[in-house]
Amino acid sequence: MSFQHTELAGVSWNNDATMINMKFFRVFLALLGGTHVLCAQPSASPTVKSTGGSSLASVVAGSKPLNKPDFDDIAPRNVTAIVGQTAELNCFVKHPGDRVVSWIRKRDLHILTSSIYAYTGDERFSVKHPETSDEWTLKIDYVQQRDAGVYECQVNTEPKLNLAFVLRVEESAPVPATTTPNAIHRTFNSAAQAKILGPEEVYVKKGSTISLTCTVNVQSTPPSSVSWHHGGAVVDFDSPRGGVSLETEKTESGTTSRLLVTQARLTDSGNYTCIPSNANPASVMVHVLNGEHPAAMQHGGSCGVTPTILLATFTLVISNLLR
C-alpha cells in the first residue's frame, strides 16, 4: 500500500479534547478507502479523534529502535606475540549500553576480566578500556608460551555475543636444550643481577603462605619479563591447585617481583628461581615442614634458619645433656 501526503479540507485531528497543530504532524491519505492516517511524534497521547468523521483511532507513539550491542570486527583476531613481551587482543563493542564485556580463556573457561575488573590471581592480565570508547583490549604482560590459545570477548546479551581470538606465542630466539644455569649467567653483565630477599633457604609451615620477593637492579633498561620456576618447570598461576599469584612492580629504583603461594603443601618444597629477561637469575630453596622445627619457619617471608644453624643448635643441646 502506498501513501501520499495531503492537506485535507474539513478534516482535523484532536488529541483528546485539544486540536492538534498540524505543523508538527503529517497526515497521509491511504489510497484504499480514503482512510486518514496520522503519523504522530513519540510524545503523542494514545487516543486521537478525526473531526472529519465519527471514528476514534488509537495511536501508539513509537520510538526509534535502540541499537543493539554488536562487535566492530576491525581488529585482527589472529595475534602473534614474543615471549616476554606484551600481547594485546583488541575487541571493539558497538552500542554496549549497560551490558558487560568480559574476556574468557577457552581452555579452562576462566573469566579473566569482566567490565574493567580482573578476576585472576595472575596480575599479568588486565583490560584496557578508554572511557566512552568501544575498545575492550585484553592485555597480557610478560607473555609466556602457556598463554597461547583461544580467548573470547563476550557480551552478556541474550543470546550471548562472543568473538574468538587466537594468540600464538613465539620464542624470540631458540634456547639450546643444553643451556645450563651457568650459561645463562654468562649471558648478562655481572652488574645485571636478580636477588631474592632473605636467606638462601626458607622454611615454612604446611598450610601457611610462601612469600618470595625478587628484585632486579637493572635501572636503565627494566626487564621485559620476570618469570618464576619451581624445580625445572615454570610456575603455573592457573593450575588446579590454585592460590598462586604474582605481583610485579616497576619503579625508578628497579623491578620487584613477588611470588605468593598460599596454603603451602609439602609438594611446594623445592628450588624456586627468579629469571628476569635481562639479568642473571637468583634462586632460593623452600622447605615446607609438617609442623616440625617451628624456629625454622618463615615469618613474613623475611626470615629463616639454615640447616647449618639447626645442626649447631642441635649439637649444643646434645653437648649440654651429656655434661
Count of extended strands:
26
How do the strands line up in the largest sheet? 9-17-16-11-12-13
Straight-line N-to-C gap: 117 Å
Low-confidence stretches: 1-8, 23-33, 42-50, 58-65, 173-187, 299-306
Structural class of the secondary structure composition? mainly beta
For the biggest sheet, the summary is: 6 strands, mixed
Please indicate the percent range of residues in DSSP E strands (runs of 2 or more): 35-45%
Protein name: Basement membrane-specific heparan sulfate proteoglycan core protein isoform X2
GO cellular component, one term: neuron projection membrane
Pfam families: Ig_3, V-set
Domain Ig-like: 69-164, 181-285
Task: Describe this protein's structure.
It is built from two helices and 26 strands. The strands form six sheets. A six-stranded mixed beta sheet has the order 9-17-16-11-12-13, with no helix packed on it. With 323 residues, it is mainly beta. It is elongated and about 95 Å long.
Please give a quick description of this structure.
Residues 69-164, 181-285 form the Ig-like domain. With 323 residues, the chain is mostly beta strands.
